[in-house]
């Protein structure tokens, strides 16, 4: 049985990160915008201090129109106003290194994507990956575990709506990072025994297990779809689904940094 804290980690300082990117492959695609939010509690009854750092990068590649439609940054704007990607990701990692500690967790919604993306960019531009300075709190991973049978999407917007968390500036790095911090705080309150009163590193380890179990369940579902395709004579479709299931299982073995096998 997990020993519970007397005071929630959510009552202390927390850190949040969000990246907006060129596409959805965290090992191959590039950072366009980044935000780091530091939330420090004030005196009882006072609002917390919220410090937000933001960056706009020139990723060095074209930004697809589909990505621009989501986060609003075009290739032309990134080239005109953005800073070199190497500088941006180096500064983001530097801010994290200053604040992220064993007692100050890092919150990120679908953390495996953002942290893997940052890790890959650091390796690409600086030759070394991301140092995990402390535990991670991922509201997406937690929500999938504590409420696995809830119907509907688990996007940041949908999960914020479910838990009645304010989301301002959706699909901007700053807006999404602040929402991730708010969600982490809310989940700590809603699920004290599973989340809020669990020591941050223990919660981190639990999430790694929850992520693995969730990915296995998803892979099993994909293999079921593949079997149905195969029985209907769609061999090519079945093979694609089986390959995807294998990739999902592989992802599940590594959290919050996804496997590097496919990195280039």
Automatic annotation (TrEMBL):
It comes from the Bacteria. Coiled coil: none annotated. The keyword DNA repair does not apply. Keywords: Exonuclease, Hydrolase, Nuclease, Nucleotidyltransferase, Transferase. SMART domains: EXOIII. The keyword NAD does not apply. One of its GO terms (cellular component) is cytosol. Residues 13-193 form the Exonuclease domain. InterPro entries: Ribonucl_H, RNaseH-like_sf, RNaseH_sf. This is DNA polymerase III subunit epsilon. The lineage of its organism: Bacteria, Bacillati, Actinomycetota, Actinomycetes, Pseudonocardiales.
């Amino acid at each position: 049985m997990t020993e519970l804290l007397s005071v929630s980690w959510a009552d202390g300082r927390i850190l949040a990160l969000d990246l907006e990117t060129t596409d959805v492959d965290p090992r191959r695609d590039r950072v366009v915008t980044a935000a780091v939010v530091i939330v420090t509690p004030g005196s009882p009854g006072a609002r917390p201090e919220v410090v937000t750092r933001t960056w706009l990068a020139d990723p060095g590649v074209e930004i697809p129109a589909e990505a621009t439609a989501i986060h609003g940054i075009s290739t032309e704007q990134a080239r005109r106003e953005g800073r070199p990607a190497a500088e941006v990701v180096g500064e983001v990692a530097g801010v994290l290194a200053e604040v992220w500690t064993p007692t100050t967790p890092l919150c990120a919604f679908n953390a495996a994507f953002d942290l893997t993306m940052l890790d890959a960019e650091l390796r690409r531009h600086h030759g070394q990956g991301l140092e995990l300075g402390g535990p991670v709190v991922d509201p997406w991973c937690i929500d999938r575990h504590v409420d696995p049978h809830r119907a509907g999407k688990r996007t940041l917007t949908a999960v914020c709506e479910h838990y009645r968390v304010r989301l301002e500036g959706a699909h901007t790095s700053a807006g999404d990072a602040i929402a991730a911090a708010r969600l982490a705080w809310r989940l700590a309150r809603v699920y004290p025994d599973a989340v809020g009163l669990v020591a941050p590193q223990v919660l981190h380890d639990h999430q790694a297990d929850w992520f693995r179990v969730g990915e296995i369940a998803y892979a099993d579902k994909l293999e079921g779809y593949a079997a149905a395709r195969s029985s209907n004579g769609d061999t090519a479709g079945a093979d694609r689904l089986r390959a995807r299931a294998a990739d999902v299982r592989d992802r599940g073995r590594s959290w919050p940094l996804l496997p590097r096998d496919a990195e280039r």
